[in-house]
Write a structure and sequence with these properties.
Number of domains: 1
Structural class: mainly alpha
Shape: flat
Largest sheet: none
Number of helices: 4
Helix content: over 70%
Strand content: under 5%
């Protein structure tokens, strides 16, 4: 379901944010989720768990939508 994640990370590190987003839209929200996770574990944020849950849920929704679109358009088989 995460076809394009590694290529999206590569594009992001190269500075191609827009291309990275179109390759795999959940890359940036997933990175934010992991950053929030580590910040919450280190600083014990008051509402950190809620923020992590929200960003993870948003990322999961993007992954499912992206996979559904690729499945309908046939891009998932390439």
């Amino acid at each position: 379901m995460t076809c394009g994640f590694q290529r999206s990370i590569k594009l992001l590190f190269e500075g191609n944010v827009v291309d990275s987003f179109f390759m795999f839209p959940a890359t940036i929200p997933l990175i934010i989720t992991f950053i929030l996770l580590f910040v919450h574990l280190y600083f014990k944020l008051k509402k950190g768990a809620q923020y992590i849950l929200y960003t993870f849920s948003f990322s999961a929704a993007l992954i499912l939508i992206n996979f559904s679109v690729k499945l309908v358009t046939g891009d998932v088989f390439h």
